[in-house]
Amino acid sequence: MPADRLLPSTEAQDLLDLAKEIAREELAPIASKYEETAHFPREQFRLLGQAGLLGLPYSERWGGGDLPYEVYLQVLEEIAAAWMSVGVGLSVHTMSCFALAHHGTDAQRDRWLPDMLEGDLLGAYALSETHAGSDAAALSTRARLDGDQYVVNGTKAWITHAGEADFYTTMVRTSDDGGQGISCLLVDASTTGLSSAPPERKMGLTGSTTAQLMFEDATVDVDRRIGEEGQGLKIALSSLSSGRLGIAACAVGLAQAALDEALEYAKGRTQFGRPIIEFQGLEFLLADMAATVETSRAMYLDAARRRDRGLPFQRQASIAKLVATDGAMKVTTDAVQVLGGAGYTKDFPVERYMREAKVPQIFEGTNQIQRMVIARELRKS
Asked: Is the per-residue pLDDT at 14 higher than 90?
């Protein structure tokens, strides 16, 4: 049951058709194998870059697609539906480019952004620490100014693409002034003193590497600071608002894939002489799954359209992330139920979808944090 989309132009439809083709021909056939062996899909990211899909929402001047978020997110959803690890990786890369694209100088953009958007480089976003996850203002990785370089010490945790990325958009502490003492550095992966720990052993998204990132007297040139000192937390939070829409779109793609698999199975499986989709207990379950997918899609598209028009969208982004990721957890669980015993085996992908659906409720701000954001915005109204 392909998604029924209303796209703003024929060019957007052509781009989506390209994304579907890549997803169908290049990603879906190898996803299960790569996930089973925890194989990082670096070549697939290069393919997305060659196809022009790594910089869709950014300016054409620096190699981007200059496309609205409404279009970018639907492309992202199609990629995630074929392979969630690649979808999440594309979302993380896009968020990793946000600071430079929106807060860097033209000279900085000219120097680094084209390679970041055209597929030669893959990014990571280094904000979280073991003791500073939801409380980002409590981060302690410190950057001390020494002449024309920062000397960085500390450890980042739960970093997607750690050890695989070419650059890290990194939030560091440059003063003890709480949230006002955080700055943003664009750190090259080859930086002396920068290393990564062995990957975390995760229940899902095993093709997406997650690890700690360690700084031991790592030296970063001052001209790699994005924005002024003390602006890092503001940059980080603005990045996350857009990043949450990416995760919402990925969650919808995952839920759509689970729904499609459940539908196909229910139409082909017979019991008591007829397809099981004709039994009310299952058809109502499938109807609820479809309603959840379409509701979640509508939520992220509403937030994206607000963003594209320059309207406030933080509350809508948090709602979209909350609804879509909780919805994906429910839909993937129900897909396993539709397949019954078969759904609990690795002969079908729904068990993997169910495992993968859990972490979107946690990263880019837990869903408990999303409720706090929504409530805070309501108090302002």
From this structure: yes
